[in-house]
Amino acid sequence: MIEDFASRAWAEHHKSFARNIADAAHAVGVAIERLSARQYDAPWKRSAAKDGAHCA
Questions:
Q1: Least packed by Cβ within 10 Å: which of 15, 30, 53, 55?
Q2: Is the pLDDT of residue 22 over 90?
Protein backbone atom coordinates (compact mmCIF):
# COMPACT_ATOMS: atom_id res chain seq x y z
CA MET A 1 0.00 0.00 0.00
CA ILE A 2 1.23 3.47 -0.78
CA GLU A 3 -0.53 5.20 2.12
CA ASP A 4 0.65 4.08 5.53
CA PHE A 5 -2.79 4.47 7.14
CA ALA A 6 -4.36 2.19 4.52
CA SER A 7 -1.79 -0.56 5.06
CA ARG A 8 -2.70 -0.91 8.73
CA ALA A 9 -6.42 -1.07 7.99
CA TRP A 10 -5.77 -3.63 5.26
CA ALA A 11 -3.60 -5.73 7.56
CA GLU A 12 -6.30 -5.74 10.23
CA HIS A 13 -9.29 -6.38 7.98
CA HIS A 14 -8.18 -8.17 4.81
CA LYS A 15 -9.40 -11.56 6.05
CA SER A 16 -12.90 -10.32 6.79
CA PHE A 17 -12.97 -8.43 3.47
CA ALA A 18 -11.95 -11.54 1.56
CA ARG A 19 -14.53 -13.60 3.48
CA ASN A 20 -17.27 -11.09 2.64
CA ILE A 21 -16.34 -11.24 -1.04
CA ALA A 22 -16.37 -15.05 -0.93
CA ASP A 23 -19.77 -15.06 0.80
CA ALA A 24 -21.20 -12.68 -1.79
CA ALA A 25 -19.84 -14.80 -4.65
CA HIS A 26 -21.31 -17.92 -3.03
CA ALA A 27 -24.71 -16.22 -2.64
CA VAL A 28 -24.66 -15.21 -6.31
CA GLY A 29 -23.78 -18.78 -7.28
CA VAL A 30 -26.62 -20.22 -5.20
CA ALA A 31 -29.07 -17.72 -6.67
CA ILE A 32 -28.03 -18.56 -10.24
CA GLU A 33 -28.26 -22.27 -9.47
CA ARG A 34 -31.80 -21.89 -8.08
CA LEU A 35 -32.93 -19.69 -10.96
CA SER A 36 -31.48 -22.14 -13.46
CA ALA A 37 -33.17 -25.09 -11.74
CA ARG A 38 -36.49 -23.26 -11.83
CA GLN A 39 -36.11 -22.14 -15.44
CA TYR A 40 -35.13 -25.57 -16.74
CA ASP A 41 -37.47 -27.56 -14.51
CA ALA A 42 -39.35 -30.34 -16.29
CA PRO A 43 -42.98 -30.26 -15.10
CA TRP A 44 -43.47 -33.94 -15.88
CA LYS A 45 -40.78 -34.87 -13.35
CA ARG A 46 -42.57 -33.17 -10.44
CA SER A 47 -45.02 -35.02 -8.24
CA ALA A 48 -48.69 -34.05 -8.48
CA ALA A 49 -48.91 -33.37 -4.74
CA LYS A 50 -46.03 -30.90 -4.89
CA ASP A 51 -47.75 -28.90 -7.66
CA GLY A 52 -50.98 -28.70 -5.76
CA ALA A 53 -52.84 -30.66 -8.44
CA HIS A 54 -55.87 -32.56 -7.25
CA CYS A 55 -56.73 -36.01 -8.53
CA ALA A 56 -60.44 -36.78 -8.63
A1: 55
A2: yes
